[in-house]
Write a structure and sequence with these properties.
270 residues; alpha/beta
Amino acid sequence: MTLWKVIRPAIWASFRATSRLYLLLSMRDYRFVFILGHMRSGSSLLAHLLADHPDIAGAGETHLSYRTAADLSKLIVKTCELLRRPVLREAYLVDQINHPYVADEVLRSGRLYRCVILIREPEATIRSTMSMLKCTEQEALDVYTKRLDELIHYGRLLAGRALVLQYNDLVDRTDATLAALTRFLELISPLTPHYATHRMTGRVEGYGDPSGNIKTGKIIRTAGHRILLSSDTLHSATRVFDNCLADLHTAAVQNVSDATLRVERQQIRL
């Protein structure tokens, strides 16, 4: 057994103790922000853009489960561990969540500050899911449909505390979209289209996007996968996507597309 294997548990125990002690003594009241997305939605990109802001700390996809509002405090210690930082002095903490790890109680809680619901149009999503999971188009469609149903449920609970954002908004209308996100999160300084990578960027152990694009530090549209999809799959997926947008609108979830249009109109008038 090497010396490192002997002392490593003690070092990590000291690290966690320091993080928890700071949290206890500082009584910091963090603003918790969730990115609620689905596989291949661009959530890793958005998580990096947010975490690059000087007032926001984030380590991407933590895979934490939030069963009660008290579990939000786990995000503080987990982020410290993933970033190797014993203390987080930022005002906001962000987690990227693409799976059903959040209970209704947490979404209703006043401790959860804001949520961004991130979705991507079906054709590119299903092709990318098939490529990554090596699954059939029906399996990819089932994954996509189930997650969009969950996001609709989240939107109904969150209402005005959520903002729905599409991947195409982020990539094709970047400036206006980031301006809308800045206002939604009530940030003092603006979000920018570039970001610094961190130690969790591109990790392959299930933490976000393992592709090379995420390591570039800027927004890049992912190249499409050359996978043929049946017309039935495309029709079903498109109907699910359209229904998701309509249901979120009915639930009074804010829409970044509406906000970006207002920004663009203002810029034209100026």
